[in-house]
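Methods — Computational structure assignment.
A single polypeptide chain was analysed. Its primary sequence is given first, followed by the predicted tertiary structure written as structure tokens.
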Amino acid sequence: MSGHSKWATTKHKKAAIDAKRGKLFAKLIKNIEVAARTGGGDPAGNPTLYDAVQKAKKASVPNDNIDRAVKRGSGAEAGGAEYQALVYEGYAPGGVAVLIECLTDNKNRAVMEVRTALTRNGGSMADSGSVSYLFNRKGVVIAPKDGLTEEQLLEIVLEAGAEEINDLGDSFEIVSEAGDFVGVRTALQDAGIDYDSAEASWIPSVEVPLDTDGARKMFRVVEALEDCDDVQNVYANGDIPDEVLAELDGEE
């Protein structure tokens, strides 16, 4: 299993914890508003909005909240904010590269929150371009196994643009070019297969091997960043061995 797959597995496990923090709903609603503003309020003609809505539904965001977010974003209802998409770069302890995606209506607040989260946990901000080259923009679709084998899945998604499939334990991660994940998701739907999420993501091309202490420090930085209201997604290039992940899971 690649380092990225381990990272994806851990992020997958963290979803329930993030939801308990009460932060996840707000981030998902913000995604919906931005998608509706950018491509219109009809999910049938706006794949980005469709996937944002599906992700929110999977996280049990109430339908009323979703509908209002679509209306605010599309202008059908007042109250929508003008969010700016920003990407910051930084380092966690041990030279781990971190990419931070933000949606904010206040750039000064966002950069201050990101800088504080990094520096308080042993990390630092990095100049633009000094970290991003270590990541590739890819499409990522997560599908539960539900008795499905990797070979069966590959037959379904290969022609749609899938490049590789990673085993995440209770689900599969299907990686494609960034522009192909909608096609991969559609191929799954046409085959009657459920999926957990479909989106463009940053996948590290170079990874930093971490021991238990290094992994613990990286997660501390990631969690501090994810606690920031303006931060939507955090990506890191730490490579965590299975035994280290198991040890960290045992500490929770």
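Note: The mean pLDDT is 87.
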